[in-house]
Amino acid sequence: MSRLSLISLLLLLLAVALAMSLGLSCSRKRASSTLPNPTAFGAAIVESSGRKQMAQTGLLLPQPVVVQVNDAQGAAVPGALIEFSAARGVVFDPSYGLTDSSGQVTTNISLGGSAGRYRIAALTSDKTGKKIELTIEEIALGYQQTLGRQLNDQYCDRCHNPESTAERLSNSDNLEIRPHPFTEGDTLDKMSDADLTAIISHGGPALNRSALMPAWGDTLTKSDIQALIAYIRAISDPPDRNAGAVFARN
Ligand code: HEC
User: Fold this and answer.
1) pLDDT value at position 14?
2) Is 216 touching ligand 1 by the criterion CB < 6 Å?
3) Which residues of the chain have pLDDT under 50?
4) Dist CA 108 CA 105 (whole Å)
5) pLDDT in the model for residue 12
6) What pLDDT is recorded for position 15?
7) Has domain 143-247 been given CATH number 3.30.1330.40?
8) 72, CA 20 to 30 Å: which among 99, 118, 173, 226?
């Protein structure tokens, strides 16, 4: 075989290999964007669990989100298609699925890289093709807010969170004057940053409140207290005007 024909043979082999790999990657892409065909349609889509969670930006929410398709009578519908969507940067695992025998699809969600509230949409359609949508909100905490959350878990939660868990016994019920959970926007939004700084640093009496709220000025630094305030603002429900950006589907 001449050197020339050997080279052209090699080139041909290379071209075939290239074409095959291109073809493969194309068909793979097509396969993943083909949605499964629903075998049933519902009339409503509801959240079963997982809304109002928080995680640091870019990280997985602690619990999966579970949504359910129901028929007009409120009975679960297996075999319906649900698709999830949100702002860029939010990752769903999986991003769509057919409802299981209990009418549900479960997805794990990682929020985007910017701190704020993320609107997550779950979409299905009824038998006429009309879209039915459910929107839930999840919160991504920035670095400072995450620090505030850790300080809260360490110092504040036992009095300010009324729920006892296996790991943590709440002291809230034992207090004569009940502190508010920090999610309670109706109360906390009315307090300015200066008020929050005062009561956290110097205790209840700083604002003519009960001394059952201790002073933390000797325990926490100024930037710790700022982090706590950033956290309190971030988790406020309903959202505080300082609560930060809202990210919806784009
Ligand atoms: C030992 C229990 C206890 C701990 C721990 C505690 N607090 Fe409080 N806190 C209270 C009580 C009780 C009140 C309500 C005082 C009142 O209304 O007279 C209060 C009130 C507050 C308020 C005013 C809003 C509200 O709930 O009425 C803020 C803000 C606050 N605390 C922040 C904090 C922060 C931040 C921490 C952690 C660094 C913390 N607290 C730790 C008991 C506690």
Assistant:
1) 64
2) yes
3) 25-31
4) 10
5) 64
6) 63
7) no
8) 118
